[in-house]
Amino acid sequence: MRCLSILLSAVLGLGLAPAARAWEKSRDVDYPATAQCPSENMCLLVSCPAPGKPSFEMLVMEHGKASGEPFFIAVDGRRFDFILPDYGANGLYRWPLQTAFADALTKGRTATVQFDLQGMAHQVSLRGSSAAIGQVLASCGAKGAAKSGPAARLTGLSPETDCQTATSTGVVVDRTLSGDNLTAFRFKDQYGVDYVNVDPPRNSKALQAQLAQLITPGARLRVELHGCGAGASVVVLSSVETVR
Q1: Is 59 helix (H, G, I), strand (E, B) or coil?
Q2: Mean pLDDT of the chain
């Protein structure tokens, strides 16, 4: 167990002993961050790895999940769904910090990290989180967490007219970019994971900017999809909106 604690500190470089104490500023990373470590196997961070890009990060060990698999965090009973991305810098998972989740962290009392409904839940104290997270956001040059963009719903995104239509709610696993354009993303719902093509008939830089803000890994969305071709095997995005 002592070796595991040493490894945690070495990988993350936070210098924080796991404890149920107030959220504290981390002085051992090269960007603003506040952290809480509920156990030897887990640390949660709200951080600013780049100016104007507040993030939520986690170091998690021995969770039994692979990239692309879902888990959730409940803050005072309110559930927020996440998809595990690939490891990033310092062995951390990273997501854009969404407004609703940031508000819940700053105003709540307890968060629960749940990787498996049959497994152990990890309780995280939110004591001191409001001031600590507020300082990180201020230093980030951000008035608040990442929002969905100027449009919370986009329609008319499919060039197809003779296809099957379906609607679903789920989470973005990852996305594919060609230059600055979003061309596809993987979307996980209750039925599985679909590869969704993005091919708006009236493409523009402004529309692409809105799509890029809406369709981010870990974002929970409601989508309308067109299934085209043999067996409706080619899936094209028709509309998308955020789910609060």
Answers
A1: strand
A2: 80
Q: What is the arithmetic mean of pLDDT over 130-141?
A: 88
Which tokens sit at 184? 């596809």
Are the beta carbons of 52 and 142 closer than 8 angstroms?
yes
Tokens 């039925």 map to which residue? 191
**Taken in order 121, 122, 125, 126, is the CA torsion positive or negative?**
negative
Closest CA to 140 of 32, 215, 10: 32
**Residue 196 bridge partners (DSSP):** 185, 235
Place of tokens 């107030």: 22
Helix (H) or strand (E) run with residue 235 in it: strand 234-242
> What pTM was estimated for this model as a whole?
0.55
8 Å CB contact between 140 and 51: yes
Q: How far apart are CA 18 and CA 82, in angstroms?
A: 23
Cα distance between residue 120 and residue 27, in whole Å? 30
CA 23 vs CA 109, 127, 179: distances in Å: 12, 6, 39
Classify burial at 143, counting beta carbons within 10 Å of its beta carbon; exposed 0-12, middle 13-18, buried 19 or more: exposed
Helices (H) and strands (E) in the chain, counts: 4, 15
pLDDT at 10 over 50: no
pLDDT value, residue 230: 85
